[in-house]
Each structure stands twice: as structure tokens, then as C-alpha cells.
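ping. complex inputs:
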Amino acid sequence: MPSPRCFQSVLLIVVLGLALPRGLFADADPVTNTTGKPTLASLIAALPDASYADKQTLIRDLVELPDRQVRGVLSAMLEGNLYVRTSDTRVFIGETEGEGVRLIDPLTGRTAGVVSSDALNPVGVNNKLRKALKVALGQLDLNDPDAGLRLKAVQEMLRALDAEGQTVLRARLGQEHDSAVRREIQVGLALADLDSAETAVRLAAVRTLSSSLNPDVYNRLSAMLQQSSDGTYGESDPAVRAAARSSLRVIERYRAFYAGIQTLIYGLSQGSVLVLAAIGLAITFGVMGVINMAHGELMMLGAYTTYVVQLLMPNHIGASIIVAIPAAFLVSGLFGIAIERGIVRHLYGRPLETLLATFGVSLILQQAVRDIFSPNNRPVITPEWLAGSLQINDVLAITYNRLYIIFFTFALFLALLAVLKRTRLGLDVRAVSQNREMAKAMGIRTAWVDALTFGLGSGIAGIAGVALSQLTNVGPNLGQSYIVDSFMVVVFGGVGNLWGTEVSGNALGIVNKLLEPYAGAVLAKIFVLVFLILFIQRKPRGLFPQKGRSADA
Amino acid sequence: MRENLFTDLAAAVRADRSGQWLLYGLAAILVLVPLSNALTAEASALHITNYTMTLLAKYMTYAMLALAVDLIWGYCGILSLGHGAFFALGGYAMGMYLMRQIGTRGVYGDPLLPDFMVFLNWKELPWFWHGFDSFPYALLMVVLVPGVLALAFGFLAFRSRVSGVYLSIMTQALTYALMLAFFRNDMGFGGNNGFTDFKDLLGFNLQATGTRAALFGCTALALGASYVLCRYVVSTRAGRVIEAIRDAESRARFLGYRVESYKLWVFVLSAVLAGIAGALYVPQVGIINPGEFSPVNSIEIVIWVAIGGRGTLYGAVVGAFIVNFAKTYLTGAFPSVWLYGLGGLFIVVTLFLQHGVVGAIGQWRSTRLRGAAR
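pong. complex structure:
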């Protein structure tokens, strides 16, 4: 047996179902239904016949309603997309579709057919109403349960804050729980208070602003302390000026702190690029003692592999980088093995000759790339998930590619370390590099190990090339610009020491970034190079020299 | 120091048969090329144009540079991958003199400041430009700047026993750093564009045939003199010690020789020779820019020496001529082939021609002689 309450709701649905299509309430008292309280339906139905003044009231009432449809109605009205169908004076939200207009019922959200625009009259709006609508929309968002939406609404309102907006915000501040939104409102109101005629209000505002990193705050406070040519300050009251000065000092300290963090991260990312370029070299040069001047060109091959992979899968750019990593490892690794088998193998024990022969290889590879692709740079697309930046606060934003390169480099480094320390190949490589004759006597196929080691170092260079393709231009000269740097990183860190390479690369990157604001990018680089030249004179074996007899090569 | 330097020089050259041929060749060029240029008609088959004469002079400056590299690499085992830096520094010192000689004939007509400084809104001549209006001062700087840099760099590097590939990488970093520095406009060396548009040298118009012939002659004489000097150096007792250092550095040190000092002064001598070569290069080619500092250029010098045959001196000269002639020909005829050719040369020479072209010829001759004797 149905309960009485159930019966009531059924009745309500029936009543509404009957009432709405006929626009019943349009005939009755425009804004109230039988219970005397306005509903969404009744308010909307009242719109077509209301005067501008009436609409003002209607909007205010609409905002008070808990219904979620209100937002759609108000924004449609603001954009002039709210229509009255002439045949039955019902109100619809309209969307232009071809020649006609698609009607959407504001209450149910359902489509009510497409009609010609002749059969419709827009709900009239004037400038005053538009303003009221904007305030109303802002107010709606301010009360939204989603804190992110509220924050956006506050920021939108602060962009052009008038007295009315201030009242709304002050009211909201009382009931706001989210700290970020509260903070935003406080800063915005305090900024507005700076224009107040009362000294006490300005003073309070300046104090409130003391920990805000908002650039507007910084500019406003600085402007207050600015002395114009006639000796007057932007702010007339000395007490407020003193407060502004101390607030500014606090802000500047924060800014310096975040600028330091930014320099650190940028330095780490630049260092990571150096480590990437050097880490393959740390294997071929550091472990095997082979000077491979074609190392940069192996990175270039990796970058071009990325380009080719993107050409092959133009519809999956996002995944192309993931595919390019193993592909570049294979391409550069195979080239490396070919170089080792063809040339380097014959020159063991003659490092200077190896240097010259591999330089020849690098010239040939460069020219080959020039002939096959083009002498110009090739466009490599950055996938969406690599673009953009992480906004930490108003003064600190870090682009994602910088963050990714730091993590990527570290992961690559750990992987390489694991290969050398935990696998059979790694064991063989270390054995051969420490004592070739003894390793051979123990049954290790040294020639095979040499080829694989060189291939591993070269493959890593290829992977570095994939990462570089996202950071610099992909052209025939890509490798050349890194070769001096990467040798310096390996030598600085200590030959044969992977950790040394990692540490020295990052240290050089940070030093470079620290110097840059004072000296400029090029001069900073020169200073670093000169420092390295001098450093190697003091400690020829690098930061972390290998101990023991294996180092006396 | 022995009594008579000239008898020593003559003795050193007398013992060097191949070197004598080289010097005869140089003397022949020195006389015949300007003569042919001046006396024969332009249509004649024997006529050597201004262009060819300048090209030959350019090769000779390169040959001097190769000599300098062979002296340290072939005889002392120091592989410098930054010798282009000394060459370029000498060239810049000469270029500064030539820039000052332009005077009011520049585009902006400033009597004191070179065009690029006017362009960059500089108000006065930087301190290091003072004195470069005097030719003797410029010549002094041609020798001093590369020499002092080599002295400082070598002093630090050899004292701390940086050797082998480490030293090579250091020298490369040195020239790379200099390249970056000279590319900067603020340095006061014309930035990217370097120096060009020279007018005259000691009052003689650089474009005039007579000046070109004179410069050609000076270059040939300088090359010959450098050769004799290098030959003399390696034939002395000190030269013997230098070779010992190349072959067994530790052993030479244990025998009581001050390895660092020997290395240092031969390195400085080599840098000075390179600087002079650069100073001869600039007025004839008519331009100097930071590209000369690029590490690739320096490595190319090494390959001239390797191809000619290291440790022979005359091999370096031969190598510089062969490679640069091939470069001029190939970059003109088949531009894209040049780098394949150069790269291939690097590989072939290191793998198969360890003693270079002159070594291969010598081997061929000695086998033939042995065959004849048998």
C-alpha cells in the first residue's frame, strides 16, 4: 500500500507535468506558486512579460534558488541566447543550428526541436541587467560547492571590483572554509582597501598584504613608496608607508626564496641535459677508455629517430616519444657496435688515433644526415603531456619538460647503474675494464664485451638524443654543440665513475644558472669552462677519482 | 748557446734530405709565382692569377700551422686540439692593426673607432685597442698574445702532469671557450662578424697586385724560416730530450730531465709559430671571425699533420697542401662530398697510413731499394 508521502510526490509530478507545458503560471501571479515561494519554473515563466526593473528582481530571486539549472539560464540570458517562443510564450535556451535555432528546455535540459528564428523573441537585456547578470553569475559560482570554481569566480570578480562586488565578497568571506579561496578574497579586498580614504583601513590592508606573492600587490606597494618629483609619495601617511615598507621587505624575502628554488630547479634541469649528454660517454670513455668523438652524432641519430618515429605515427604524437626511446636505443646502439667493430677495435691502446678516427665518423654522419634529411633543422613535435607548466604560486612556475628531464635523467642513470652492477654484462664490463688479460684468462669473451659495452654507451646516447629533441633544435649540428661539454662533465666527475658524472653534471648546471643573472648565458658558460680547465689542473683525476691500481692507466 | 747559430742551422738542414727538397720547392715558388703573375700575359698558360697566388699563400700559412702542430704532436706527443686558437689570436692581433688603418674610410667614417664599435654605440676605444695603430706593436702582440696564453696554459697543465687525452680535451675546451667569448659583441672584437673590409697594410693597398706578391713572398719566407727553425730545434740535444719525453715520459723524468720545462717551451714556441701564421693569413684572406676558434678547425689541423706524416716536419707541410688543395677542389666541384672525403681520410689514415703520405712513400722507396740491392 502506498504511503501518503509517496502519494504526495506523485501528485506533485502530475501537477507539474500538467502545469508546465501550458504555461499555467504565466496567467497567475507571476512570481509565486500556490505555496507563495518562487520556484525555478515560476520565475522563468515570469520573464517574458517582466519589465527591466522586474527582471532585476527576478534575477535576484533566481540566484537564491538551489536549482543547478539557474546558472545555464542566467548565462544564456547574458549572452542573449534566452528566447520566448511566440506561439506559447514559453522560455527556452537557444543554440544556433544551421538556419534555425535548437531549443532547449531550461528546466529539463531536453531538446524541444529546432525552429526558425522568426518564431522566437529574445528575452530583452539592457546594460544594467547585464551587469546584474554578471554579479549574479559570480555570486552563483561563489556559492558553488567546488572550491576550484569558487576560486575562479573570486579571481574573475577581482578583475574589476566595484562596491557591490566588495559587499558580495565580504559576505562570502564570512562563510568560506577553503583557505586558498579565503586568501584570494582577503588579498583582493585588501587591495581594494588601499584606495580607502581612512588611514586605519589602509594600514590594515597593507598588513594583510604582507605575505602575498601576487604581482599586483608588489606593484601597488612599490607605487605607494614611490616618491614623485614634487616630493610627495604615492601614499600620504608616513605610518602606512612604514608598514608598506616592511610588508614589501617580507614579500621580497619570499620572492628571493622562490627565485632561489627556481634557479635550483632550472640548474638541475640544465645539469640533467649535461648528464644525459655525458652519461653514454661515461661508459665508452669512462669505463672503456675510448675517446668517441662521434658521441654527439650518436645523440643526433637518436633525435632524428624521434623525428622519423613521429613521421611514421602522425596520429599518435603522444605515444611517439615512448616508442622513440627504444627505437633510438637500437639505432644508436647498432651504429655504435658498427663503429666499434669497424674502427675502434683496431685502435685499442692508441687513444689519440681513436679520437681522430671517430672524429672522421662524426663528420660522415653529419653529412649523411644533411643529405638524407636536410641541412635545416627538422621539426619535432612536443606531445601535449610534455607541454605546459606547473604553477606553484604567483612567482614560481616550472615548465613540465624541465621537471620531466630531471626525473628522466635520474631514472636513466639508475637503470644504467643497475645494468653495470646487477647484470652479467655489467660484471663482464667491469672485469674487462679492470684487467683485460685476467678477464680473458677467466673465459670472458673480451671482444664481444667490448662491442656490447660500446653499443650500450652509444644506445644511451641515442636515448639522450630523444630527450634533447624535446629541448633543442634537431639539426645536423646537434651533436657538435654538446661534445666539449660532455667530455668536460666526465672528466670533472672523475673518469670511470658514473656517480661522479651525475653529480658533476648537475653541479655544473646549477653553477651555470647561478652565474647567468650576473654574467649572461654565454659568459656564464665561459666562466664554467675556464673554471673546469683550472680545476683539472688542480685535480687531474676529477672530483671523485677512482681509487686503487685500476686508475693508473 | 753555441758560438755560431748559422752553422748549426745549416748543419741541421744538411742532414735533412727531404727537407732540402722542400726548401728548394719553396724557393722555386717564391721566385716563380710572383714572376709569372707579374710578367706573363693573363691569357698565357703560364700565368698565375692573383687568386691562385693568394690561395697558395693561404696554404702556406696553413702549412706553418701544421708545422707548429707537428712540432708538439709529432716530436713531443702533445696532441693539441686547440691550436686554431693561437692561429686565430695572431690573426686577431693583425686584424686589429688593419682595422685601425681603415681610419675615416669606414662606412661611418669615424677616425678612431672601427665601424662595428660605432654601430654598437661605443664612445671610446677600449684600452686593449690602444697601440694597435702602430705596426711594430701589432707584430709584438702577434707573438706575445698566443705566447703568453700558451705559457700560462702550459705552465698550469704540464706542472700538474695533465697529459694524453686529458690535455687534448683541455685544449679543446680552451678554444671553445675563446670562440664563445669572441662571439660576444661586448668583447670589442666585432662579435659574430669579426674583422673585415681591410684597406691597407703599412700604407700599401691590400688589393694591389704588388702588395699581394710581397705578402706571398713574406709567407713563403716565413714558412721556410719556420721549417729551418723547427728542424734545428729537433736536431739539438734538447730536441732529443723532447723525443724521449714523447716515447717514455716517466723514464725521461727519472733520468733527471725537467720534463715540464721542455714541454712548456716547445709548446710556447709552437703557439708563437701558429700566431705568426695567423697574422700572415688575415691580410691575404681579408677576414677573421670567431669561426676560426671552432674546435673542428683545430682538429682539421691535426689531420693535415696525420695525413702528411707526423714527426717528420716536411710531412706536415705536404699534408697541409694536399688536404687543403683537395678541400678547395672538392668544395667547389662536389660540395656535399667534402665532409665524406675528410671524414674518410681521418679513418683511412689512422687505420692504414700510420706514418702518413711521406711515410708511405718512404716505405715504398726502401722496399724498391732493397729489391734493387737483392
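Chain A touches chain B at residues 291, 293, 343, 346-347, 351-357, 359-364, 366-368, 370-371, 480, 483-484, 487-488, 491, 522-523, 525-526, 529-530, 532-534, 536-538, 540 (CB under 8 Å).
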